[in-house]
Design a protein that fits this description.
The chain is of the alpha+beta class. It contains nine helices and twelve strands. Helix 6 runs antiparallel to helix 8. The longest helix has 62 residues. One of its GO terms (biological process) is bacterial-type flagellum assembly.
Length: 470
């Protein structure tokens, strides 16, 4: 090794250690930056030329050190796990929230829900059975029944409102996703250009990967690494981002008429109109819109229909105060006692004299008989009655909500463990960075001392050789 080549070796050492200190400083500066991945300067030794010059007889293998490459420390497996778990957690969060909204709509158990109002109706019929000719007891039946009908309407309206809010939230989410998708495509383009020109792109990649993680939470997206640092983003097998190009997502009803069918909501690509099987928050919202909320609304409609059928049948089995056969107690508001839903349930009787409290055997005469009123009051405990069926519905809702909450808690722990593992790899450790800083500092001092030694050697060779005795 010539003396002057030693200067080059020492110079590359100075630059490499300075590069390492710069990267360490960047890590320390971004210790609290969300989405930042710690970086590391890759030091590689530089040897001599692999093919010597024609007349060269040198066997030098010393060329110093190269520190041009700065990499991000990330684990691809943990990143993929984080995307999958974050999407799953988001979907389960929406499911838990949806069931909580349904519980709020039913307001059970409590004094304001359908169960309490239905109990009041049965008690009112019991009072009529005790005093079949008393107008006050009969008036109470109509009032309590009207209150029960209003409670069905209130619960149905609350479910409708929750559905509409979820539908609006899905539309807002889709717009946010489209913005994020566009940003990922733009960053892909910038990263590719920077990589091809040899410019640093680590910070751009961090920002891009943070946006991809947002897409994982929003729609269950996953990413695949491509050439020149770009990533392709796909959802349910559909590629939303490919290099610098991107597709949009829009909410669509299969019927083409918004709101006509609560179960036909879906997300499709724009352009193309291809249905996308999304996950994450959007997947949870679609499940709520198409299955969970319509399912419980159907159960509420079934309860309203069962209530009307049970009471109309029982009421028709007796006679009113004037001895006439009992008429329908409930209808759909238009005089039709069939096809009733929670929204259309209506009290068909407005006159207390029409309440059929007496047994059918007393038809044709004014009577004080109470047997039919007593039979209606006993429907509260009927094994296949509306009251029992409604209680079973509420119990099922409570169990489902409890299970959803428990599953979400478990999933949150799993996701937290994955995030902790990912952070242990890509996060900044201040103790480690302090160690690296001291290591690079000492190496820099050693390289500087090497230059000083070479300088002194050259000074002797140039200024003192041949001057012995002068």
């Amino acid at each position: 090794m010539s003396t002057f080549s030693g200067l080059n070796t020492a110079t590359t050492a100075l630059w490499a250690q300075q590069r390492g200190l710069d990267v360490t400083g960047q890590n320390i500066a971004n210790v609290n930056t969300e989405g930042y991945s710690r970086q590391r300067a890759e030091l590689q030794s530089v040897g001599g030329t692999s093919v010597a010059a024609i007349w060269s007889v040198s066997k030098d293998v010393v060329g110093g050190v190269d520190a041009d490459t700065v990499i991000r420390i990330r684990d691809a497996f943990l990143e993929a796990r984080a995307q999958a778990e974050s999407g799953k957690t988001a979907a389960m969060t929406v499911h838990d929230t949806t069931l909580a909204q349904i519980e709020q709509a039913f307001r059970e158990p409590g004094d304001t829900g359908i169960q309490a109002k239905l109990t009041d109706v049965f008690k009112a019929w019991g009072d009529v059975a005790n005093n079949p000719t008393e107008d006050g007891a009969r008036t109470a039946v109509l009032q309590k029944t009207a209150t029960l009908v209003a409670e069905f309407h209130t619960t149905d309206a609350a479910l409708d409102k929750a559905w509409s809010q979820t539908r609006d939230a899905l539309g807002v989410l889709a717009e946010g996703v489209n913005t994020t998708i566009g940003q990922v495509a733009e960053l892909n383009t910038a990263i590719k250009k920077a990589t091809q020109s040899g410019q640093p792109s680590n910070e751009l990649a961090d920002k891009r990967d943070a946006l991809v993680l947002e897409l994982s939470q929003s729609i269950g997206a996953t990413s695949t690494a491509g050439d020149f640092g770009v990533v392709d983003v796909s959802v349910g097998g559909a590629a939303l981002v490919s290099g610098g190009s991107a597709l949009r997502l829009t909410v669509q009803e299969t019927s083409g008429v918004p709101g006509t069918n609560p179960t036909d909501q879906r997300l499709v690509t724009d352009p193309g109109g291809t249905a996308v099987n999304v996950g994450g928050t959007a997947g949870g919202q679609l499940t709520a819109l198409r299955d969970t909320m319509p399912g419980y609304r159907d159960k509420l409609d079934g309860a309203a229909q069962a209530l009307a059928t049970e009471f109309n049948t029982a009421h028709a089995g007796g006679v009113d105060k004037d001895g006439n056969p009992g008429v329908a107690l409930f209808d759909d508001g238009a005089g039709n006692p069939t096809g009733i839903t929670a929204k259309t349930l209506a009290l068909a009787i407005g006159d207390i004299a029409l309440l059929a409290a007496a047994d059918a055997g007393t038809e044709g005469t004014q009577t004080t008989d109470n047997r039919n009123a007593l039979a209606i009051a006993k429907l509260q405990s009927a094994a296949n009655g509306t009251a029992v069926a409604y209680r079973q519905l509420i119990v099922k809702l409570g169990v489902e909500a409890s299970v959803a909450t428990g599953n979400l808690q478990t999933q949150t722990v799993v996701a937290s463990q994955v995030d902790a593992s990912r952070e242990s790899v890509s996060g900044v450790n201040l103790d480690e960075e302090m160690t690296n800083m001291l290591r690079f500092q000492h190496a820099y001092s050693a390289a500087a001392r090497m230059i000083t030694a070479i300088d002194e050697t050259l000074d002797v060779l140039i200024n003192r050789t041949g001057r012995v005795g002068l």
